[in-house]
Amino acid sequence: MTQGALVLRIVASLVGSFVLLYILHRVLGPRGRRWLIAIVTFAGGLFYGLEWYFPVHGHPAKNFLTDYIEPVSNMLAVVAAFTVGLGIYSLCQVHGRNVARQRPGWYNSLAFFVAMVAMFTFGLWEHYLHLPEPAPAVLPWPKAIYEVLFSGLFVPLQAATFSLLAFYIASAAYRAFRIRSAEAALMMTAAFIVMLGQVPIGAWLTDAIPHTPVLGFFRLEKLGEWVLRWLNTPAQRGILFGVAVGALAMSLRVWLSLERGTFFSEQS
Amino acid sequence: MTLLICGMGGIIVAGVLIAQRGRTMFIRRIPGLTAIDEAVGRATEMGRPVFFSPGLDGISITTLQALAILSYITKLAATQGARVIVGLRDPTVLPVAEESVREAFTAVGRSEDHRPEDVRFVSDDQFAYALGTVGLMQREKVATNFFFGGFYAEALILTENGQALGALQVAGTPDPTQIPFFIATCDYVVIGDEYYAATAYLTREPTLTGSLVGQDISKAMIVGLIVLGIGLATVLGGVTTHNFLLNLLAQGR
Amino acid sequence: MEETAGQTFWQRMQQIPRYYVYLLLAAVVVWQLLMPIRLPIVPSSATTGLYDAIKAAPDDKLIIISTDWDASTQAETGPQTQAVINACFQLKKRFVIMNMQPPMGVKLSNDIALAVGKQYGARYGIDWANWGYKYGYGNVLMALAKDIPKAIGDDFDGKPATTLPLMKGVKDIKSISLVIEITGLSGMTESWIGLIQGPYQVPFASAYTAVMAPGYYPFLDSGQMKGMLVGAKGAAEMEALVKRPGSATTIMNVQSWAHVLIIVLIVLGNVGYVLSRSRRGERAR
Q1: Which long-range contacts (CB under 8 A, 24 or more apart) does C197-200 make?
Q2: What global pTM score does this model have?
Q3: Which residues of B touch A171 (CB under 8 A)?
């Protein structure tokens, strides 16, 4: 297919979709829209469920629905991409209002626009223009600015924000962990064992204990591993089972449109 | 495995049908969910807004449940005249959250109090979302924070800053990873499958309570299978070829 | 700062201002970075499980290393990726990197693979390759299981993956010997186990940040995972196994003393709590 024909097909699909949605919106009342949502939800869930459970054959192993997985995934990706635009619109609306009305802290909203435009411009420029390097190992200036924005600002900022957690957990642990009961004391003991067992200092503290089957168990790294494997694991497994069954129930409720309130509106 | 899942699904649907026939089902008290009313009341008394975060996931089961809880909280807050600010990380959730909040205000007859700009997309990036949300909480001086949904490493940044602000915090997530951090920094925490029981607990609707009872029966069934499995493994002494339960469950599809 | 006037010493011990806590922690980190006290690292069974899984992988198949992490978890997942790639090169196992979420991870891990590969004289396209970022993880995994060339399309550099010598004979999931998931995100492992490891019995191993690792011990215990790296400690243990100490080993020195500081603070807070309660009890009597 030529590029022109492809573009025409995309534009026609977009226009056709808008027209169809507009007609549906006008023709169907609130009750009709609810039924449409319920039918589409059911069909979507049924498609994936059937594709998974229907017997497969041949090589590569597939059934009559397998070939449609990719186009459906692409369609979902396109819909998700549209919502990114929606998010940007929401941000521009909020911050634009702040700047236009000169609300307190409006300069922060201005910084948002500068950062967004800069990243957008130099990111696309760097990716699409493929400018030649002016000299060996010297980047073209749009790529250099992009590298400063991404590798010089964004990446270290992300890592720095994550590192804040270390300080927050120290202050949260100090403030919250009080031995108010026997269970709390037990939990504290387990926490200390695991915290020390997970770092080399735990092995160093109990280095005098030999690596024998019986005595070696009391080395902090072994004790910590035992707590994680034999105390933590059953508890996590229990929570996993509960959450999985809860997720199954929730999925069924959504699939069969039994979940009331938000997206399926009140029971009529 | 398919039979097991279909069996559990059947039990859940049966629970729903039984409840719809008018049978009352008992649900034990869940402190984190009972505290929602108190938390919204606190914000109303202080004249400060409520902040709600539905987590970082896109449109998923976890987020849909969070939005259902948001709907309940918004109706409660709208009735009492409190403001609800929603900060979102995934743009696919934005239209659903906007619709949820608008419908909640309309349902209690307070559509004129609804402020569309209170449902905001903050950022797609995890930590930019965390920092943007913290800034939002500090500028708006929120009295109550609700964190329901899928949270990850940024959870502690959100809750520790909320704690420093003096906000009452209620959190709920099905993922056990962040629960220790929520417990250390929040006043009430909803753990594991209590999270999926939230809408049933809050609305007491027969469909939802029936599904909850079906869930509990399914869990009892799993416990029974575990006990049977332990017995078989003990009796057979590690010989897995005759262990019909293991062979049945090991099948992929 | 919290109000301290009129409080006893024991009460004040429970309310050390958070800024002092932050300063103490920062001081400990800087101290250990500048004057490290080197401590022995003992590989755990979870780490040796992963190393043995790489060792046991057949030479005629590929290892997939799914690097689903970004800069925020780089301190842990970066050294994990480096250590795993080191092990693959050392044990002469061909591997591919891929990423499904977030997109940044594929570039960061590509940089690591290039740097480590240089030390071994590894050739891109022959000894290793980068399949790049693939959107839609559940669907990608389902497609990968059935037809890898079609699922992958182009590699990280935009070239068709089928043109790489490494991809010769690679058809579907049976061409894969081992999957190693390195991530700081929840939910990825469940997809791999549910869609690849379970149905097709492909050996699976993983590496996580220390915070999320406890939640995945059930999979290790049940045999669905062959091995697991737990945070920077797992990376340091892997570095010890491949005998190439790197940043994870440095991090563990720092982390050791940070943990000690947190324990000391918790103990101080609890000593203050217990003693202020007993003093209150005495005064009441």
Answers
A1: C197/C224, C198/B252, C198/C224, C199/B252, C199/B253, C199/C145, C200/B252, C200/C145, C200/C173, C200/C174
A2: 0.83
A3: 160
